[in-house]
Design goal:
Elements: E1 3-5, H1 10-28, H2 32-41, E2 44-45, E3 50-51, E4 56-57, E5 63-65, E6 70-71, E7 76-78, E8 83-85, E9 90-91, E10 96-98, E11 100-101, H3 106-109, E12 114-116, E13 119-121, E14 126-127, E15 132-133, E16 138-139, E17 144-145, E18 150-151, E19 159-163, E20 166-171
Parallel strand pairs: 2-5, 3-6, 4-7, 5-8, 6-9, 7-10, 8-13, 9-14, 10-15, 13-16, 14-17, 15-18, 17-19
Antiparallel strand pairs: 1-12, 11-12, 19-20
Helix pairs in contact: 1-2
Length: about 170
């Protein structure tokens, strides 16, 4: 079920600006100091989180990372809703994980509220380069998302999915 989210409130704009500034500083100079500022935004972070430059999020405080998570260059996490990434996950370059959507009804869009659905990525998932994960998706453990896929629905454990929209290809060992 969609929850409404007003990204135009004063508090939301301030939080978003803080996160955007931290992401920009880290991208310009991915030092340990800037990484600490970035990590301070997140709800929780396990051990050995690695984030390459070009990372972007909207708020940060809706994001949780497990242990041994790697985000390659230019990853975008739009976290109006919750994003949870489990242990031992690999996220390829240019991946987008989105929790925010807008109403299909044009009159409702004039109200400028957003719709959010959480995204859950369980343990030991590999998301290939350029994949897009849409709001409300759960990717269960040990699944692989092929490069360039657009994931519009949840993915079962030990599954390989690919395409636009992503479709089940086969079960993995």
């Amino acid at each position: 079920m969609d929850m409404t989210f007003d990204s135009l409130t004063s508090d939301a704009r301030k939080s978003r600006q803080l996160a955007h500034d931290a992401c920009l500083q880290y991208s310009r100079s991915p030092s340990k100091g800037h990484l600490k500022k970035l990590i301070a935004l997140f709800e929780s972070v396990g051990n050995n989180l690695r984030i390459e430059k070009g990372f972007h999020c909207d708020y940060g405080n809706h994001i949780t990372f497990g242990n041994n998570v790697y985000l390659n260059i230019n990853c975008t996490l739009l976290d109006g809703g919750r994003i949870s990434i489990g242990d031992d996950c690999l996220v390829g370059p240019n991946v987008q994980i989105l929790t925010v959507n807008h109403p299909l009804n044009s009159q409702q869009r004039l109200q400028k509220t957003s719709l959010v659905k959480d995204v859950i990525i369980e343990n030991n998932v590999w998301i290939g380069a350029g994949a897009i994960i849409l709001p409300g998706v759960t990717i269960q453990e040990h699944a692989v998302i092929a490069a360039g896929s657009i994931v519009t629905r949840s993915v079962k454990p030990y599954s390989l999915v690919a395409g636009n929209p992503a479709r089940f290809l086969r079960e993995l060992d």
